[in-house]
Amino acid sequence: MKKSPKNDRSIQEKLNFFKEFGYTPHPEQLKVHDAFLNNRFTVVAAGARSGKSLLAAAEIMDEFCRPNRRIWCVSSRYELAEKPIDWFMNFAGQMYLGSRRLIDYCKISNVAKGSCEITAPW
């Protein structure tokens, strides 16, 4: 299985990580996850209810669990950016580090509507 030039990971390693918090992408989502491994920027143009927010949350989770990362979730409206963050919170509540849930390690602050910051000790 070939490794990505961007971060030296294969798609199978990423899928194994996704299984830890109960996410299994469908074939079209899998293409996007593979593109994230090999490209600095990836644009997802898909219809309503195609799983874009879920896909984004899985990618956020993947990056969040690595040290020294800053991740932005940006959209044209607050409600649209809120969906992947909600999914991320769900995933972080299902994944354990030792005996504690990942979400328990996080500092979460909602300064104002449209602004949410999640910080991890790593």
Describe the protein.
With 122 residues, the chain is α+β, with helices and mostly antiparallel strands. It is built from 4 helices and 4 strands. Strand 3 (107-112) and strand 4 (115-119) form a beta hairpin.
In terms of topology, how is this protein built?
Blueprint: H1 11-19, H2 27-38, H3 52-64, H4 78-94, E1 96-97, E2 100-101, E3 107-112, E4 115-119
Antiparallel strand pairs: 1-2, 3-4
How would you summarize this macromolecular structure in one to three sentences?
This protein is an alpha+beta fold and 122 residues long. Helices cover 42% and strands 12% of the residues.
The whole-number mean of residue pLDDT values reads 87
Any low-confidence stretches, pLDDT <50, length ≥5? none
- Tally the helices: 4
Structural class: alpha+beta
- For the report, how would you describe the main beta sheet? 2 strands, antiparallel
Q: How many beta-strand segments? A: 4
Strand content: 5-15%
- The radius of gyration is 14 Å
